[in-house]
């Protein structure tokens, strides 16, 4: 493995799980990059969040979507889980006022080890955060169990790196939609946002009272 390949792998790893000084830089990039902000804003708009909604975001990064959601769910509750301590700290600073009022709760954690929640969520969002392994279906089933009947789960993906095209994004959208259906979600639909490459968002509704 040559030096360039090792550097590229380390940079990509930081975007998956930011750590140390490099992680702080990556967080700043994610928070300030125009395409990232547009992507998060678009994803939030698809959720049709209401003032009293309980919303969970998996992999909130620097907390851009959390901030946008909390400005809408002014009488609700916004919880976030992220496996990067660096991101938890950055997002906490960005959402300090809402955290002080108790409307936002940011935790170090992941979908693979969900904490116990007092009540289920109306909306769940994950942006480029749970599609990195072969455990996607298992993870979606866990999320459905903490989604109230009638609530929805939105999974957003924008491919990055070599080979990232509109076609690969569309293929991933169909893959996510299929996984949502197999996880027990209904009325699954896929939305597309025109960026380079395009962003896909698959949304499914939890119609089932019984949680298996």
Description:
- The protein has a single domain (34-205), classed as Vaccinia Virus protein VP39 (Rossmann fold, 3-Layer(aba) Sandwich), CATH 3.40.50.
- It is 43% helix and 23% strand.
- It has a seven-stranded mixed β-sheet, sandwiched between helices.
- It contains eight helices and seven strands.
- It is an alpha/beta fold and 212 residues long.
- The radius of gyration is 17 Å and the shape is globular.
Span between N and C termini? Answer: 45 Å
Q: What is the CATH H-level superfamily?
A: Vaccinia Virus protein VP39
Q: What is the overall number of helices?
A: 8
> What percent of residues adopt helix (DSSP H or I)?
40-55%
Q: What's the count of strands? A: 7
Radius of gyration using CA atoms only: 17 Å
> From the helix content, strand content and strand pairing, which structural class follows?
alpha/beta
Instruction: Give the CATH topology.
Output: Rossmann fold
CATH architecture descriptor name: 3-Layer(aba) Sandwich
N-to-C series of helices and strands: HHHEHEHHEEHEHEE
């Amino acid at each position: 493995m040559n030096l360039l390949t090792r550097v590229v792998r380390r940079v990509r790893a930081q975007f998956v799980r930011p750590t140390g000084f490099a992680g702080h830089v990556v967080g700043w990039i994610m928070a300030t990059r125009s395409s990232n902000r547009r992507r998060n804003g678009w994803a939030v708009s698809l959720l049709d969040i209401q003032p009293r909604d309980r919303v969970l975001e998996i992999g909130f990064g620097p907390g851009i979507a959390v901030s946008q959601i909390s400005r809408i769910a002014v009488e609700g509750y916004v919880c976030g889980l992220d496996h990067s301590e660096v991101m938890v700290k950055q997002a906490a600073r960005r959402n300090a006022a809402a955290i002080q009022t108790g409307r936002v709760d940011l935790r170090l954690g992941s979908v693979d080890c969900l904490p116990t929640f007092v009540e289920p969520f109306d909306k769940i969002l994950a942006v480029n955060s749970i599609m990195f392994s072969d455990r996607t279906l298992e993870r979606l089933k866990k999320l459905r169990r903490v989604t109230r009947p009638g609530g929805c789960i939105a999974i957003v993906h924008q491919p990055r790196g070599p080979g990232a095209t509109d076609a690969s994004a569309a293929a991933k959208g169909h893959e996510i939609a299929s996984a949502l259906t197999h996880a027990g979600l209904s009325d699954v639909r896929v939305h597309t946002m025109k960026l380079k490459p395009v962003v896909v968002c698959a949304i499914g509704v939890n119609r089932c009272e019984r949680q298996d």
